[in-house]
Specification:
The chain has eight helices and 15 strands. With 334 residues, it is of the alpha/beta class. The strands form four sheets. The chain has a nine-stranded mixed beta sheet, with helices on both faces. A two-stranded antiparallel sheet has the order 1-2.
């Protein structure tokens, strides 16, 4: 406990130093959870004057919002990472849920802009209009999609759109860790989002963490869905709301943490799940056995690429004469 307290004090001391460099008021960093009122604004200093940025976006999950200091910053660049390609659906769904919260709480609905390259749209797919309306409350008229041929074109569209107040939010989806998406490019996106007072979500698929100007970075992956809850309790064998495993990988107000969030499509809000409630049917094999087999096939023995010592290799396993020169020749080097 003592070592944990010392480590936390060291982290807050470093954050105070960073706050002095960046111009953030140090009192905003005194334990962040104690000052994490929902909707509270973040106070910054620019050119020697204290200003108030737009309020945070509260997700509805109390513990997650408190860890972030009230929620995700609205006038800022926020990174949403999918560590692997198979996490693209979860990361994209999480961003859509956040934008659905924005539209639901906006006094005047303005469209969203989703920007991506042809590569990422071919790999992860395009947003499905009926699903957007039923799951996230986003009508097709609220979403504009810009498909750019190259990454440099997608970055240019995002920078120009980030400073426009005609959009509720801008989503930039990029795959991997391209060199053009460096600290300078993300700093331009973050500053334009601050100036316009609108969020910019940097959705990164199959990427690892690297230095960026985004104050918050979240790593999202799919979580196992819990059984659907009824008045009589959990319904055995059912599938509840979609779950997201969300990790706080970077934040100026919070320590790293891991949360499991569920998206309620009816209430348009997240809920934090503290315990994994799995039914008996979820503890068995993922794939059912064959009809006429009572047990799975036994595991195969050791597989080797050469004959056992002292054994004779069958003639049928020898390569043909046409293959001998290829085996004996040198490998292609270039």
């Amino acid at each position: 406990m003592a070592s944990s307290a010392v480590a936390q004090a060291t982290v807050f001391a470093l954050r105070r130093k960073i706050a002095q460099i960046e111009g953030t008021l140090p009192e905003r960093l005194e334990p962040a959870v104690a000052h994490a009122d929902e909707g509270q604004a973040v106070v910054l200093r620019r050119h020697g004057r204290a200003i108030v940025d737009a309020a945070c976006l509260a997700t509805g999950a109390a513990g997650f919002d408190a860890a972030l200091g009230g929620g995700l910053p609205l006038a800022a660049l926020t990174e949403i990472h999918g560590a692997q390609t198979r996490d693209a659906g979860a990361a994209g769904g999480f961003v859509l849920a956040l934008t659905g919260l924005l539209l639901a709480r906006a006094a005047c609905r303005t469209p969203l802009l989703w920007i991506g390259t042809a590569e990422i749209f071919h790999e992860a797919g395009m947003p499905y209009a009926p699903g957007l309306r039923s799951r996230f409350g986003i009508s097709p008229d609220d979403l504009l999609i810009a498909e750019a041929p190259k990454l440099i074109d997608a970055l240019w569209i995002a920078e120009e759109a980030a400073e426009l107040k005609g959009f509720s939010a801008v989503i930039l989806e990029i795959r991997g860790n391209p060199q053009k998406l460096d600290l300078t490019a993300t700093r331009r996106l973050h500053r334009r989002a601050q100036a316009a007072g609108r969020p910019v979500f940097l959705l990164r698929q199959a990427a690892w963490a690297e230095p960026t100007a985004a104050p918050v970075r979240l790593v999202v992956s799919p979580a196992t869905a819990a059984p659907r809850h009824t008045i009589a309790g959990p319904l055995e064998g059912s599938i509840g709301p979609p779950g997201f495993a969300v990790g706080i990988d970077k934040s100026r107000l919070a320590l790293p943490g891991q949360f499991t969030l569920e998206w309620n499509a009816d209430e348009r809000a997240f809920a934090e799940r503290h315990e994994q409630a799995l039914g008996p049917a979820d503890t068995g094999a993922m794939v059912s056995l064959s009809r006429h087999r009572a047990h799975p096939a036994p595991a195969a023995g050791a597989v080797v690429a050469f004959a056992p010592a002292g054994g004779t290799t069958a003639a049928g396993r020898q390569p043909s004469r046409k293959q001998h020169p290829a085996h004996r020749g040198p490998r292609r080097a270039g």
